[in-house]
Design goal:
alpha/beta; 2 domains; 7-stranded mixed beta sheet; 4-stranded mixed beta sheet; globular
């Protein structure tokens, strides 16, 4: 049976990984500066991660959410401690799209309203309401387009005010650093005014931290660079270091009711073991400190290359923008220099999303290769 052909594929077949590197079937080593869409947070095959998942699967891999699962409680408590999000509650699911879907559903339950405000170049997933809130008509099927979504420009605070004052908006959903859209950010004043408008207009403020969370921005969450308190925070990618896991952090003002949300696989024993290994490693290895140190070093190196016209993002969620499309450049980095990088809807931008364990020597290797390709 052939695979449904929806992915354009590079001719590389990774079969193993260790920390910042992956290896193909011929033993060729690749420097991974993309982390599989920012998923690999603590490095490929980290010993803490391997041990935790192996130990758990040898005992109990799964049972439903109809029973007690102390691992979920342990994960929630650890997440509260490291993130600083005191008094939030955790609902676990399987992916970023699912996290945003549940966030939007919860906002609609809470407010009794159904329209969503999202932003140009935003990406929130490929499921029903999440994809409708995504600024890409090519992936929105007619069944998704039935959702009521208004997409505004970043920094258009007057537009946000006008839409929220109409009284039918249940949620504003926003990435504080856009991922697929190309690492764009709004101003601090914009984020903080949107937050205030949401409070005034009985609208839930959703921080999509699926890609920017778990230390990638230099703080545990990207919204923590600003003076805002989201009603709901969606998380996934780096949360499981490759194991499928997602979730939402829910402000205590939103009351839970039995049956309101649900999932079969979300918060299973293996997912929690993987998630705990990630949090423990971030803490023990001081990876957020490393993010800030390496980010500063990376930006200094990038500024010395005249072909780079703009540096976008924060922490280890960085975009390098050129005045030409970078598709061929990225191919040369992969095939000639064995370095993985990421693309974006902005075809002139390379995305850098490495494991948070990256060192300065790896940054040097990348820039040496980039200079040769340029």
């Amino acid at each position: 049976m052939p695979l449904f052909d929806v992915y354009p594929l590079y001719n590389v077949t990774p079969v193993s990984g260790k920390d910042i590197h992956v290896y193909d079937e011929n033993g060729t080593e690749y420097l991974d500066l993309y982390g599989g869409h920012a998923v690999i947070s603590i490095g490929h095959s980290h010993p803490n991660y391997v041990k935790a998942v192996t130990n758990q699967v040898s005992k109990l891999g799964f049972y439903s959410n109809a029973i007690q699962n102390p691992l979920q409680v342990e994960l929630a408590n650890k997440l509260e401690t490291l993130s600083g999000c005191k008094d939030y509650e955790l609902f676990l699911c399987n992916s970023g799209a699912e996290a945003n879907e549940n966030a939007l559903k919860l906002a609609s339950f809470k407010t009794g309203k159904s329209r969503v405000v999202a932003f140009k170049n935003g990406f929130h997933g490929r499921t029903s309401a999440a994809v409708a809130a995504t600024d890409n008509p090519n992936i929105i099927a007619p069944i998704n387009a039935q959702q009521k979504v208004t997409i505004l420009e970043l920094n258009d605070i007057l537009g946000v005010k006008n839409e929220l004052e109409k009284g039918d908006v249940c949620a504003v959903i926003i990435e504080f650093i856009q991922g697929v859209g190309g690492l764009d950010q709004a101003t601090a004043d914009f984020y903080e005014q949107v937050f205030a408008l949401c409070k005034t207009n009985n609208t839930m403020f959703i921080a999509d931290e699926v890609q920017s969370g778990y230390g990638r921005s230099g703080k545990f969450f990207a919204f923590q660079h600003y003076n805002v308190t989201p009603d709901i925070i969606s998380i996934a990618k780096g949360m499981g270091n490759g194991f499928p896991v997602g979730g939402i952090l829910i402000h205590p003002e939103i009351e839970a009711k039995h049956g309101m949300l649900g999932t079969t696989f979300g918060g299973n024993h293996l997912a929690c073991a993987a998630g705990l290994a990630v949090l423990n490693t971030i803490e023990e290895e001081k990876l957020i400190d490393n993010v800030n140190e390496i980010s500063a070093y990376f930006i200094t190196k990038a500024k010395s290359i005249p072909q780079i016209k703009n540096i976008k993002g924060k922490g280890l969620m960085i975009g390098l923008e050129f005045d030409f499309e970078v598709g061929e450049l990225r191919k040369k980095l992969i095939y000639d220099h064995h370095i993985f990088t990421g693309g974006a809807s902005n075809k002139k931008l390379i995305r850098i999303l490495p494991p948070l364990t990256i060192k300065k020597t790896h940054i040097d290797q990348f820039f040496d290769a980039l200079k040769k390709v340029l």
